[in-house]
Description:
The protein has about 190 residues and is α+β, with helices and mostly antiparallel strands. It has a single domain (about 1-160), classed as Lipocalin, CATH 2.40.128. It has 4 helices and 9 strands. The chain has helices at about 1-15, 30, 145-155, 155-165, and strands spanning about 40, 55-60, 65-70, 75-85, 90-95, 100-110, 120-125, 130-135, 180. Strands 1, 2, 3, 4, 5, 6, 7, 8 and 9 form a 9-stranded mixed sheet that branches. The longest helix is centred in the first third of the chain and has 16 residues, at about 1-15. It is globular and about 35 Å long.
Amino acid sequence: MAKLKAALVMGAVAAVGVGSYSLLSADEDAAGTRNLTNQVWIERMPQNREDMIGHIVLLDQDGQQFGIVGRSSTWRHFLEVFGWRLENNRLKLFFPQERVKGEVKVRTWRCEGQAPEPFELCLEFSNQGRTMQFYSRHDWVVKDAEALEDLSVEVPELSSVFENSRVATPSLDLDAVEYTDGPLPL
Length: 186
């Protein structure tokens, strides 16, 4: 339970902190989602401290699969915790606040040189003809509390966010809930 709480705090802080400042494989679906989890993804680099940017992190810690999606600047943060399950290249999502479920197609790939600087990885969500793209770097991996502390040193604004971003541990059993289809907050 303590590891899950630490992972959730790390994910929330990593996702909030970024507001401060495809490999070849025999299994194409697996290669297309290789960098999806435990990675901080943002829609673009913020222009200034007030610029609200979208972010997402899908955490897979000790068998618990949950994520945090939101929009943040240095000063304002809107976050939502959700449960997820990946089946090949289909990401199934459950948002407990509104009891909404959904599914999107997802793929990741190395895009250094094609993506805006300083990004090296690309993530695309698609559903019913609509797409949404996020970016990351190889070193924006959420491993444990120590990795988060290292990120706090690199981005000083993150340390102040870390103190105020405690999130309760979710209990998300996707097989045991009843929910309705609806618009996803992605």
